[in-house]
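User: Can you write out an input/output pair for a complex, sequences first and structure second?

Assistant: Here is one pair. Inputs:
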Amino acid sequence: MSVNLKQGPFEPLIIAFCCNWCSYAGGDLAGTGRMTYPANVRVIRVPCSSCVSSNFILRAFQRGADGVVVAGCHPGDCHYTSGNYFARRRFLLLQRFLEFLGMEPERFQVHWISASEGNRFAAVMTETTEKIRALGPNRKLRDTR
Amino acid sequence: MKRIGVFVCWCGTNIANTVNIEAVTEAAGKMPGVVYAGNYKYMCSEIGQSKIKSAIIREKLDRFVVASCSPRMHESTFRKTAAAAGLNPYLVEIANIREHCSWVHKNKGEATAKAIALIRAAVAKAARDKELWATQIPVEHRALVIGGGIGGIQAALDIADAGFEVDLVERTPSIGGHMAQLDKTFPTLDCSACILTPKMGEAASHPKITLYTYSEVEKVDGYVGNFEATIRKKARSVDLEKCTGCGICWEKCPSRVKSEFDEALSMRKAIYIPFPQAVPNVPVIDRASCRWFTREKCGICRKTCPAGAVNFDQEDEVLQKKYGAIVVATGFDVLDLDDFGEYSYGKHPDVLTSLEFERILNSSGPTGGRLLRPSNQSPPKNVVFIQCVGSRDKSRGKPYCSKICCMYSAKHVILFKEKYPEAQAYVFYIDIRTAGKDFEEFHRRAVEEYGALYLKGSAGKVFPDGDKLLVKGVDSLSGHALEIEADMVVLATAIKAKSDAPQLARLLGISTDTHAFFMEAHPKLRPVEAHTAGIFLAGACQGPKDIPETVSQASGAAAKAIVLLSKENLLSDPCVSEVNESLCTGCLACIKVCPYSAITEKTIEEKIHGKALQRRVAEVNVALCQGCGSCTVSCRPGAVNLKGFTNEQIMAEVDAICL
Amino acid sequence: MKITRDNLCSSIVKEIAEISGENVAGCYQCGKCTAACPVNTVMDILPHQVLRFLQLGLVEALLNCNTIWICASCFTCAGRCPRGVDLPGIMEALRLILLRKRGFSRIKAGVIPRVADKGMPEQALVSAFRKYTR
């Protein structure tokens, strides 16, 4: 469910899967540098972007997320050598699949954010939130039971 | 029912200013499975930790969540707290409400709501935590050093001095590497051989070091502490035990071939030692140019050998040995100049690479140390040195700086001028890089004492002009295009990775950078380790390096290897993948994605309807697995799970956040 | 332009080194002398280029430039040179070579009271005599 669905204007819920070595640390750095970004973003820590299953993303949309971000190390910098290459290929497919289902492509994004890019982390999260806020609530894939 | 405790940290005012601690604590207390929720000003302090410990005992908590700073900061602290209170340390979860919440949001209402959501996710994950135990892997107390240059020799000596067995594998007939080819070393002008050969001898006679020269590593299996390497000892055709190194065989041998050691500037025999101080001082027969092996004629060496050491029937020997650690010190190659036609290299004998010039300077080199023009054996009066030939050249060469050329060119200038004080040296340079102890002073000596004319700019063309070489260049400082009549041109040719470095990387399971140099685990903080645990890097195989840097990296790699070898057992991180064999269909898609080759197939036997059936399943080697979780996603039936980050746990987190 | 050992070590290059007592090879062309020079805007060859030309043995160009005459021998360049090169000494050497060749003085002691203003530092007078007299 969206952040404050009960009252006020629409606030999107965004789930960000961040790899422990780069993007999560980049998020930590954004914090240390007190760079603000919207509170709509909630981070789930994973060891590597390659361990984010498409199931998690579909589940997030099913349960009411309006946007999902997967963030990992820059290609070539993966802590586990090659994980982000697998992630990149896998999510390209998922993106096409979500588009096929009629979902706006902005709702599922993949970004490469290194541990030193706190400002980039904040920028990506801000930008994503604004884009999805403009799109409105996600209605595709949502569990309506 | 789980008994979960939640501890909310104020972090002084860091969290408390933006997050309503009381509201968060209250909300946490109502989450499913939570039996206790409390807060304290500094959870990580001694008092905070003792509060957690007493709550664990008082409330009979079986797991807990700390809502505080980043897990990258204090996860290990709170795991120790759990262990101190008798809980398995992996039954702890952290909700990051500082870096990811209070520090990045300004609105207290929003931040509080987010903090509650993050804690809910952590509670949901904690509810599914299982006890995990680090496993122990035994360590084989022997090291393998690949490459017998100065880096490999140093690493082998250091490890052996620490009391461990070392096998040093070198591809060529002798250890020594490129350093053995050099005449003098900068900036001290020590004779290279004089400082190298004692080390070579020490390595050969060290009771803990076994040399495998003229040998190659063919295969490496296993993992940190337990590598298994296949080493091929190529047939030397000379018995190492019997040979006395008297030299009669190579004196009598009628076949002459270009010497690799002398950069093809001199001839060697088909039975040869690469250089006089070779270790071991035992020749090999180069079967491709030996008359016996090519035409079944001759056999003079066998006839003349007083020790009866020549053995034409010798065959390659393949060894399999176990190692706890591997040091890779395979060195570098010099760039091929085929694409640099403007320098007339290969077209005129007086145009040389720096390594060839080094051989000509050397007293054991092709000219016996007399510096003469290869074309007519006359002393050179004007020598032009051209730097950055192929280095810092992203179109035809290598984009990086080869690092050592500025210094060895200064050395060459000095050595040349020492031999011919009346002669003139010219050096074309783009930048002079002399970062190193006494390097700048050495370079300035070449300029000021030895009068070398340094010209900022490059040479555009070198062409033969009568019996001279005409060098067309520029001095960009004065803006003059120049022509210099030279007797000799020396090209400071770029250093590149060994051409077969990618193959070796594949064999070892380590990675290479875009220029095929081996990649270190971290460019700043783990510069001597490869990404694969138990494999260490030394010397120019990791990037261009001079001798002192190579030696220090080799000692660093050796120290790291010693740390590993001195352990009886290794403790492995329990957050690794596991296979649920009853779900595994044996498709083995997981093997393809694993960057550490940690997954193998195995056959299990199970009884179905009273019949014994054999079935193929995947198996994770916990010692090799680094816990990336790539395999969990590739698994179609969902049989692979990463402990500590199971699919169920992440799914529960998603659900909890979306609630 | 052809560079040979002969013009790098020509007699005039040696003479300049002898008069100034300086080894021009000491200069590594950082350009600090030019950057510090108060009169660099009117020089046709900049101070650091003077040294470079000497390193290349291009003395002829230097003997025909205005730089050596504009140089006020203020010693700022020498004071700031990280290599300790005495550029004013080299400028002086270049001037001396020309003056010795010409053999006459362009300034007489008698005209000084007429042309000098009162605030002129004594060093400037000394410099003027060194520059313009035999």
